[in-house]
């Protein structure tokens, strides 16, 4: 691969793969237990973010909490997209059965992949996301399923930010399900229950 990410890949028992995208300070191991719980039997591709913020891995840099340069997001999304194409070829992953599961910063880079590289992901579950950027031209997402789970008292990403992302993705043709949990930025059992229901439905198609 010309662009490399430290990562883990676990093949599944079914032809369905989940791209796991961690939050700030996470790594390629963080979401594996979550993924196995939400999408049992799936394969998992889990890269580590290449940007370091005070030693904590992220998928793109920010200038302060909730503030980042859209050009940085665009460049990092392009880099991840290039690697993802190579990884799909290397591991024999069907892009038509590749769905992202992202939390916080990972959810934001997943949203950027949907908006900037349509067709690379078949859909995504986005936990505590914000709008990563607004493309000049909206993509055609052709009904790609997207789950958004926001926190009602999230002081890092207010629900309005997640709802704005939902509108943007809907305008781009995605089929968006959005829920607001009685929670902050942390994940709760309600998020896991919702995510499991969503993945069970998607995997049955």
Description:
With 205 residues, the chain is of the alpha/beta class. The protein contains 5 helices and 9 strands, in the order ββαβββαβαββαβα. It has helices spanning 32-38, 70-91, 105-116, 159-171, 189-203, and strands at 7-10, 17-21, 43-47, 51-53, 56-58, 98-103, 123-127, 145-151, 175-181. Strands 1-3-2-6-7-8-9 form a 7-stranded mixed sheet, with helices on both faces. A two-stranded antiparallel sheet has the order 4-5. β4 and β5 form a beta hairpin. α2 packs across α3 (105-116). The longest helix has 22 residues, at 70-91. It is globular, with a radius of gyration of 15 Å.
Summary tags:
9 strands; two-stranded antiparallel ribbon; seven-stranded mixed beta sheet; 205 residues; Rossmann fold; alpha/beta
Task: Write a compact overview of the structure shown.
With 205 residues, the chain is of the alpha/beta class.
**Broad structural category:** alpha/beta
Number of β-strand runs = 9
CATH homologous group name? Alpha/Beta hydrolase fold, catalytic domain
Mean pLDDT: 95
- Strand percentage lies at 15-25%
Number of helices: 5
* Main beta sheet strand tally, sense and closure: 7 strands, mixed
How does the overall form come out from the CA principal axes?
globular
């Amino acid at each position: 691969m010309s662009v490399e990410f430290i990562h883990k890949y676990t093949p599944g028992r079914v032809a369905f793969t989940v791209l796991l995208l961690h939050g700030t300070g996470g790594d390629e191991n963080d979401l594996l237990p979550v993924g196995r719980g939400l999408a049992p039997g799936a394969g998992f591709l889990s890269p580590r973010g290449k940007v370091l913020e005070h030693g904590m891995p992220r998928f793109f840099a920010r200038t302060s909490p909730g503030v980042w340069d859209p050009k940085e997001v665009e460049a990092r999304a392009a880099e991840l997209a290039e690697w993802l194409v190579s990884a799909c070829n290397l591991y024999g992953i069907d892009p038509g059965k590749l769905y992202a599961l992202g939390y916080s910063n990972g959810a934001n880079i997943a949203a950027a992949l949907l908006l900037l590289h349509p067709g690379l992901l078949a859909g995504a579950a986005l936990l505590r996301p914000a709008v990563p950027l607004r493309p000049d031209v909206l993509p055609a997402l052709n009904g790609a399923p997207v789950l958004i789970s926001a926190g009602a008292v999230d002081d890092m990403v207010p629900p309005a930010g997640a709802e704005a992302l939902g509108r943007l993705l809907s305008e781009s043709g995605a089929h968006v399900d959005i829920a607001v949990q009685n929670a902050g930025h942390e994940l709760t059992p309600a998020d896991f229950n919702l995510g499991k229901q969503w993945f069970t439905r998607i995997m049955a198609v």
